[in-house]
What we know:
Layout: H1 2-54, H2 59-72, H3 76-104, H4 116-127, H5 129-137, H6 139-147, H7 151-176, H8 178-203, H9 216-240, H10 242-250, H11 253-277, H12 281-289, H13 295-328, H14 335-351, H15 353-361, H16 368-390, H17 392-418, H18 424-450, H19 456-478, H20 481-501
Helix pairs in contact: 1-4, 1-5, 1-7, 1-9, 1-11, 1-20, 2-3, 2-6, 2-9, 2-12, 3-5, 3-6, 7-8, 9-16, 10-16, 11-13, 11-14, 12-15, 13-14, 13-15, 13-18, 13-19, 14-17, 16-17, 18-19
Amino acid sequence: MKKLLLKSSIxxxxxxxxVVLTSLLLTPYLISVLxxxxxxxxxxxxxxxxxxxxxxxxxxxxxxxQIVQALELxxxxxxxxxxxxxxxxxxxxxxxxxxxMAGLTQVPAVFGVTGPxxxxxxxxxxxxxxxxxxxxxxxPFHGFFAGLLRFDIDANLSSLNAIVKALxxxxxxxxxxxxxxxxxxxxxxxxxxxxxVFYAKRLFPSLSFKISLVNLDEIKSLFSYSKHLVLNGIxxxxxxxxxxxxxxxxFDLPSLAIQQISSNLVMHGQxxxxxxTGVFSPIYNKMAAKKQNMENIFVQTTTINIFVSxxxxxxxxxxxKVFIVLWVGDEFEYSYSILCFAVFSTICSGFNTxxxxxxxxxxxxxxxxxxxxxxxxxxxxxxxxxxxxxxLIGIAMSGALTNLIFNIYVKMALFRKYxxxxxxxxxxxxxxxxxxxxxxxxxxxxxxxYFAINTWxxxxxxGAITFPFIILVCWFMLLNKPLRVxxxxxxxxKLNLGKxxx
Length: 502
């Protein structure tokens, strides 16, 4: 199981590296071809699609949990029942989302876009409704891959998706403008989604969809687990996707483009962190099913999460300003000021990732929706107020304050309500992480300016010299000796296994 988890982490990390690389190459090209206004419009479209891709009422977690338990019991009939039922359920949810999105296109002013861009927005959303429906239908397959701890398959297909999309964008966008991005997105999704179906069948030949296996009791069972995630899913979606709408309402599409540069960097950093700790969710489900104590794995995974987060966020702050200017130009330098606050938000939001996963595995997630409601009720008005006072940086300040209050204290208080685990050590690690991120990150950024690091070559060389030092500092400051030994042994076993296969 450890080897599967390590393999999954490696492939997910490689996937993220490919996604980041294609994004880094595409972004300046998109900005130069589309201009800041159309690039901001494309970012807004992707954000709106995200509303509907994740408005899944919490059922994916329930499906993954049910499939994991069925696979653990080696019950093929039960696996197919969960799969068939969930596929029908997601088809209904997908169609509902498409209808809602089509309804919103009748009042496009709600998205904060005016002028000719408004008509373009409406037409693209109607075409990309297909992508929304496909996204829902793929959820049972993701749950199936997770149940078999085969995250590597999802990771490899996601990598393929990013590569195909990037190549098609480079080929089409100069002729079709923003519609080239639309065609590239749809084509990449169709190819990779068909491959997901193929690999699921190849991995588990007994997997099949039968309408006769669609079971009302199974839907009730899924809903019984998910009912407290229904509201949470909707509220969290509104909260996480509100920023682009607020920015277009308060400012304009070019401002959204500036904010998106820092958002992209932070998003990729968070995704890298998820590649390491995200593979543990099925393990929590297995341990919860057996009613095992999870305190040790909770501390370990939270510590690993903090370690990876610290390494990446130090790097973001240290190299972010120079990187942004080299990447997309001087006009986006203001994004670095936003990044300084966004990094703090990611540290806070990632702190309780393991705690949230354990609550879900234990079905102790009943109050998460109430907390999510409080987060949105606090953050949206605060974003508007601080945005009017301080501009884009005010919106970033609101996110940092919200994450500090709710993710560091409120959600962890809920976790301790159900699990009497010792958390003092991880809080010490958290505050050590924050100190390291801002001390090393900002001092490093100042040093880069002092030494006039202003070319790609000097940036790469300075990164190659500095990054091992960052890892070494975090390795000894954040990981205790037993955990360092465990990670070292796992990596050694993987390397030896690789040599043996050669």
